[in-house]
């Protein structure tokens, strides 16, 4: 559960939403974010608003079924994806959904961010950032796939629908989104120069052990 005082947390949500827009990871009404609160509630952005224009008055508090408890606007249509992530990962307090252009392009053509060739990727995001098949909004099968993938991964690409990152707080989830897009740019450039060599399996295992020791990744 989020332990930050609620007024400060609301301000951080506003700042994070605007950061998504400033970074060029969302356009129009794209993107959404949620934060887990005490009492099985979520603080979320609303539908039909540019993340550039998010303010305190536009935020909502909903329960874990998506019912509005506080706020005058409507929840975003992809709330089910966030709820699926929270169901899969009790330790996760934040879910971000954005359309960072290069990472989104990988998803559009059904490719994963592979091979994982940088140690930083393994420590921060694990040994895989999966790309899930295309699904229309509110497709039950798409929601099930997100829940299953979120159980094992901190970042997901959604074919035709950008990326999801999970975190224990807003900063961690935002940094993970930043790394997803950064690695997508590196990988695209590297592929134009030649074959990208993956990390050796033994090295990946050592990095995964370091990741676990740092308290990162799914907790089982």
Pick out its properties.
220 residues; alpha+beta; eight-stranded mixed β-sheet; 7 helices
Describe this protein's structure.
This protein has seven helices and eight strands, in the order H-E-E-E-E-H-E-H-H-E-H-E-E-H-H. It is an alpha+beta fold and 220 residues long. It has an eight-stranded mixed β-sheet with strand order 4-3-2-1-5-8-7-6, with helices on both faces. A hairpin with a 3-residue loop joins strand 1 (32-37) and strand 2. Helix 4 (119-125) crosses helix 7. The longest helix is centred in the C-terminal third of the chain and has 24 residues, at 170-193.
Radius of gyration: 17 Å
Low-confidence stretches: none
Continuous helix count: 7
Largest pleated sheet: 8 strands, mixed
Q: How big a fraction of the residues is strand?
A: 15-25%
Pairing-aware structural class of the strands and helices?
Answer: alpha+beta
**SSE pattern:** HEEEEHEHHEHEEHH
* Mass-distribution shape: globular
Instruction: Order the strands across the largest sheet as they lie in space.
Output: 4-3-2-1-5-8-7-6
Mean pLDDT: 96
Helix content estimate: 40-55%
Compute the number of strand runs.
Answer: 8
Distance between the termini: 17 Å
At a glance:
This protein has 220 residues and is an alpha+beta fold. Helices cover 41% and strands 15% of the residues. β7 and β8 form a beta hairpin.
What's the topology here?
Layout: H1 6-22, E1 32-37, E2 41-44, E3 60-63, E4 68-70, H2 79-88, E5 94-98, H3 101-108, H4 119-125, E6 131-132, H5 140-150, E7 155-158, E8 163-167, H6 170-193, H7 201-213
Parallel strand pairs: 6-7
Antiparallel strand pairs: 1-2, 1-5, 2-3, 3-4, 5-8, 7-8
Helix pairs in contact: 2-5, 3-6, 4-7
């Amino acid at each position: 559960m989020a332990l930050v005082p609620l007024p400060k947390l609301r301000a951080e949500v506003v700042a994070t939403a605007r950061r998504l827009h400033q970074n060029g990871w969302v356009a129009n009404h794209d993107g959404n974010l949620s934060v887990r609160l005490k009492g099985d509630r979520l603080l979320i952005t609303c539908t039909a608003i540019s993340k550039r224009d998010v303010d305190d008055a536009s935020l909502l508090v909903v329960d874990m079924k998506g019912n509005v408890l506080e706020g005058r606007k409507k929840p975003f249509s992809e709330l089910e994806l966030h709820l699926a992530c929270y169901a899969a990962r009790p330790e996760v307090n934040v879910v971000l959904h954005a359309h960072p252009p290069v990472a989104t392009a990988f998803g559009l053509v059904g490719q994963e961010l592979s091979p994982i060739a940088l140690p930083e990727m393994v420590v921060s995001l694990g040994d895989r950032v999966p790309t899930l098949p295309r699904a229309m909004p509110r497709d039950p099968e798409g929601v099930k796939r997100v829940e299953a993938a979120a159980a094992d991964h901190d970042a997901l690409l959604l074919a035709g629908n950008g990326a999801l990152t999970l975190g224990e707080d807003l900063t961690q989830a935002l940094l993970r989104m930043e790394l997803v897009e950064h690695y997508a740019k590196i990988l695209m450039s590297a592929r134009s120069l030649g074959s990208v060599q993956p990390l050796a399996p033994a090295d990946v295992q050592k990095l995964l052990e370091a990741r676990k020791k740092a308290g990162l990744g799914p907790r089982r």
